[in-house]
Amino acid sequence: MALLSSPPSPSPSLPSPPLRLRHLRGLPPRPISAASASADADADADADADADHRLVVSGGGRLAGHVGVSGSKNAALAVLAGALCCSSGAAALRGVPDLSDTRTMAAVLRSLGARVEERGGGEVVVDAGDVTSVEPDSEAIGRIRAGFFVLGPLVARFGEAEVALPGGCRIGARPIDLYLRGLAALGAVIQLRHGKVRVEAANGKGLVGGQFHLDYPSVGATETLMTAASLADGVTILSNVAREPEVADLAKFLVTCGAQIEGAGTSTLVINGKKRLHGAEFTIIPDRIEAGTLMVAAAITRSCISLSPVIPGHLTSIMDKLSAAGCKIIQKGRHILEVGVLLGSKLIFLVLKIRTLRDFVALQVSALSSPNNGDLQGFYLKTLPYPGFPTDLQPQFMALLTTCNGLSVVEESVFENRMHHVKELQKLGARIRLSGSSAFIQGKRHRSSALSGCPVEAADLRGGAALVLAGMAAEGVTEISGVSHIDRGYENFEAKLLSLGANIERKVEHQQQLMTGIA
Ligand code: UD1
């Protein structure tokens, strides 16, 4: 798949209506052709744009085997945006998952004139040396929340930026006040007009170091302000920042590119701005949300699987909940590979022990019930900023809880409208009562499955994953529509589940009418 291929160079011989509204101060205007602005990996998406994708899951089976975890979507999106800080040399990234969200981010970067090249196997090279515009494509920004993250690097590097209001999952109001107030604290003047945010450095040159306390540890605001402060003149202190591993990964990337950032992973960041950053090689962390989803897949089907690479420290709250429910989780410090070697006419198996890189390890998750250890028990769960339980795993865990014994309570405290999956889980037979931002889940009766398959619709990314998981535990067939939401955030989701033995199939029906919707 031409996931993130280079856009064609703008050619004077092509009809190239100026697409960008403004060009950078001090740089000669270079028109970007409509072709280059839209020629992103969406070639594939376009080919499928008139198709309705459904996942058909036959439930009741068990899973077994080993599954790979992809690079973190959210870290990759932040790092791709952060690559705009690099005015010299390309950022060579590894572990970028092949997702519709990362393709959209590539389209955002290309719309600014950056070169984005996909080299296969998760390697993506971003050369932002020749950025020619400070206005990213509004349509692409409207598709993903993370598109808005480019605001920080753009205004810090060029002294101005104009970015459309962001899209993303419809799970709450998702304001941007912290982004804007934070940038104002770094010397930016902000105007909102015609659905766009226009930010300019008040001194006409660039941002200056300052202090800002976030009322709430917003992930996106922290990431945007961190990139902005990395190129501001002087020292910036950001307090009550998000401590999510993806934020720390972005800090690590920026430091590799020459930034000076202290306190990554803690509540306070001290950033000494640099005049310029340079490209560097960087590997994205494994996706803790995908890992958590796969762990729930094992639990909800009462199976035993292993997965790698993971960073166990990122999964503490997830492992705590699964262990409390009755799952057994074993950490394997080393990968063990069985390799068949053909010597002459004999096939000989060698068992190789390979040291894992850094702190990446494999986990084995077992939820096999037996007369001795009984079945999984329900529990109380409240979503919180990291290191609390991640909101991005709330729907998947709710699906699991519908199959556990007893009464469970799920409290969503991060987003005010993240319960769309409840109605669909109820269609599958789940007994869930909603009260404000809390869900009360009455587990299964007796030993039979609590769920029975039927058509359901994914309304957002993680809620969609929850429906797939529920389908795997349900009796009969569950058909999930709205799969484009799931494709935003899970690389090869059904292929990975299939490899573990799940009975899952993608049905693609081509339609005359486009099925669209903001994911
Ligand atoms: C990121 C993740 C998303 C995850 C979320 C919380 C990406 C691309 N997405 O989203 O998967 O669910 O973190 O872990 O990394 N808020 C404000 N004002 C602001 C910004 C946010 O009030 O200016 C509020 C939001 O309304 C929400 C809360 O802060 O209630 C958390 O949002 P935030 O941490 O910003 O999430 P995102 O960065 O959008």
UniProtKB/TrEMBL annotation:
Limits of the Enolpyruvate transferase domain: 58-497
A GO molecular-function annotation: UDP-N-acetylglucosamine 1-carboxyvinyltransferase activity
Record's subcellular location: Cytoplasm
Pathway: Cell wall biogenesis; peptidoglycan biosynthesis
TM helices/strands, residue ranges: none
Gene Ontology terms describing biological process: cell division; cell wall organization; regulation of cell shape; UDP-N-acetylgalactosamine biosynthetic process
GO cellular component: cytoplasm
InterPro entries to which the protein is assigned, alphabetical: Enolpyruvate_Tfrase_dom, Enolpyruvate_Tfrase_sf, MurA_subfamily, RNA3'P_cycl/enolpyr_Trfase_a/b, UDP_GlcNAc_COvinyl_MurA
Protein name: UDP-N-acetylglucosamine 1-carboxyvinyltransferase
Record organism: Ananas comosus var. bracteatus
